[in-house]
Amino acid sequence: MNTAKHLLRYIKETVDLHLKYSGRSNQSPRLDGYADADYANDEDNRKSISGFCYFLFNDSSPVSYSSKKQSLVALSTMEAETTAMTEATKEGLWLRNLCHDMRIFDEHHKPLTNIFIINSDSESALKAIRNPIFHARTKHFDIRQHFIRDIVSKGDVTVDFIEGIKNPADLLTKSLERVKHAKALRLIHMA
Predict the structure, then answer these.
(1) 60-79 in b/e burial notation, b at 16+ Cβ within 10 A?
(2) Which end of the chain has fewer surrounding CB within 10 Å, N or C?
(3) In 3D, which of 169, 177, 145, 30 has the Cα closest to residue 79?
(4) Which of 10-24, 53-67, 78-92, 169-183 has the weakest average pLDDT?
(5) Helix, strand or coil, per DSSP, at residue 26
(6) Domain spanning 2-187: which CATH class is it, in words?
(7) Which of these, 52, 53, 95, 70, lies nearest to 145 by C-alpha position?
(8) pTM above 0.90, yes or no
(9) Is residue 184 within a helix (H) or strand (E), and if so which, with residue range?
């Protein structure tokens, strides 16, 4: 009953919220992604939740976002985070191609087919992705996790660290207490 009341209060307080797109920006377009995972969140099957979002302009709402349960049980936080970053990479590659097809240009009037960035708050996942050497901590990784390592080693994607409190994908993976939730809504320009 408490959960139902909490859900109804949330709906009542957020019914007027919406993503904000200005149509014009003072910035040049740049594809920036954010990925996050909540390790073993589901108490029934211990599957983690992956979330990612992409911005084309830093002063606008995300152009793409996703939150879904991972298809496999991660054996570590690093694996859950790497899985989330892999899903974000696949979406980023698709968005980059879409930007090219739509002739969206960067500040140098070149198509947005260059490297895009995925930000994560998991230093261990970033280290595993950047280090292409096979080692014991990643030997259990599925082929999907090796996909992102390959894309990063080719130079098609850059992965960077961002503090968890500044990661807008955090909103897509877990319940946040009121103050963090409000801050996350501001990060995705929801008003």
Answers:
(1) bbbbbbbbeebeeebebbbb
(2) N
(3) 145
(4) 10-24
(5) coil
(6) alpha beta
(7) 70
(8) no
(9) helix 178-187
